[in-house]
Amino acid sequence: MEKSRRSFLKLVGISTLGLGASPVLDVFAASGGHDGKPKAGVSKRLNALTAKRWGMVIDTRKFESKEDLEPIIDACNKIHNIPKLENKRHEVMWIWEDEYKHVFTHREHEFIDERIKHLPFLVLCNHCENPACVRVCPTKATFKREDGIVLMDFHRCIGCRFCMAACPYGSRSFNFRDPRPFIKEENKEFPTRMKGVVEKCNFCAERLAVGKMPACVEASNGAIAFGDLEDPESEVRELLRSNYTIRRKPDLGAGPSVYYIV
Amino acid sequence: MNDKNKIVAGLIIFAAIATFPFWYNMGKAVPVPEPKLSEKAKAAKVCVEPKEFMKSEHMQVLDVWRDVVVRNADRVYLSSSGKEYNMSLSSGEESCMGCHSDKVEFCDKCHNYASVDPYCWDCHIAPKEKK
């Protein structure tokens, strides 16, 4: 008798627990917290361009003067809503031109040939193998993607400018002012930046994601090649194989991914 | 204990001041605003997820989207209904604002009411307001 009363009580207890638990579980399921993801997924676009390590080869033999570079720089400025600030100290630049002695500081000498001496060189973020800017960023606002592109997440940038101090190429610009009033034509497809964030070239990551080549490459009439450095069959590798190329300050060990044919 | 009057008067004044916000604002509650849907959004009937979910979780959705788009270059969202959407706040027709084209009527109405001030539009370009 004692045994059956005991098992009866057990049964009652368990059933009560069961009855009580189901509404509680329902509430948990309904509130669900802020996870933001129901049972959905994300994926890349089918036409996205991908690589193991993106790289660029700039054939400077195809450029003669500043006029040749202007359309390339303008194409980038327009697409990325880059403001035109007159004050040199406030300038924002993703891709710009500079002379040999400033670009290849370690290779300069006083008897360099005339063509090279006066040739304008295109400079941009080198999307380094070991980016110093990424190491110093305290918020991980700048990071290196799997495909080698060093990107900025403007949402996270706090404007400390450590990355600007770290970058040996001066590829980064700071928004000392609200850039909006200084953008002539806004490209609605791309955000502007706000005052207090750092910005730089992004190898047109937003265009690669929808299957387009970078804007500068498209505007260069074949003077700039872009492709996968890890793919021996790619156009950039072919150019690197058949031409003598140099990089900016390779002795620093940053491993820049932009090559110049001179 | 001769200060009874003073204490009572003080208590009454205190109670009056402490409850001031309640009786001052009595009956003045602003009704909860309803976001106004654009014609295109009305025609589409559904957002990327059910309405109730979007109502309570759109900020988390946007937060997740911006991370996967910026960091992983994943741009396609497969919703729980099985349909695919372009993940973007403000770039063109196939973005949030492509459908919800009226920022003032759709976003700002509730955000102002709830006194939240998201900084999306410091950088993202809002669609032009029709006047």
Description:
The complex is a heterodimer of chains A (about 260) and B (about 130). Chain A is built from nine helices and eleven strands. Chain A has one domain (about 55-260): Alpha-Beta Plaits, CATH 3.30.70.20. With about 260 residues, chain A is α+β, with helices and mostly antiparallel strands. In chain A, about 30% of the residues lie in helices and about 15% in strands. In chain A, the strands form four sheets. Chain A has a four-stranded mixed β-sheet with strand order 9-2-11-10. In chain A, strands 3-4 form a two-stranded antiparallel ribbon. Chain A has a two-stranded antiparallel sheet with strand order 5-6. Chain A is elongated. By secondary structure, chain B is mostly helical. Chain B has a domain at about 35-125. Helix content of chain B is about 50%, strand content about 5%. Chain B contains seven helices and two strands. Chain B has helices spanning about 5-20, 20-25, 40-45, 50-70, 95-100, 105-115, 120-125; strands at about 75-80, 85. Chain B has a two-stranded antiparallel sheet with strand order 1-2. The mean pLDDT of chain B is about 90. Strand 1 of chain A pairs antiparallel with strand 1 (about 75-80) of chain B, so a sheet runs across the interface.
Keywords:
heterodimer; A: 262 residues; alpha+beta; Alpha-Beta Plaits; four-stranded mixed sheet; two-stranded antiparallel sheet; 9 helices; 11 strands; 31% helix; elongated; B: 131 residues; mainly alpha; 7 helices; 2 strands
Q: Report the biggest beta sheet of chain B as strand number plus sense, adding barrel if it closes.
A: 2 strands, antiparallel
Helix and strand composition category of chain B: mainly alpha
The rounded distance between the terminal residues' Cα atoms of chain B is 70 Å
- Domain count of chain A: the total is 1
Tally of DSSP β-strands of chain A? 11
Task: Sketch the topology of chain A as an H/E string, one letter per element.
Answer: HEEHEHHEHEEHEEHHEHEE
CATH class wording of chain A: Alpha Beta
Overall pLDDT metric of chain B: 90
Low-confidence stretches of chain B: none
Number of helices of chain B: 7
Mean pLDDT score of chain A: 90
- Largest β sheet strand count, sense and barrel closure of chain A: 4 strands, mixed
Proportion of strand residues of chain B: under 5%
Multimer state: heterodimer
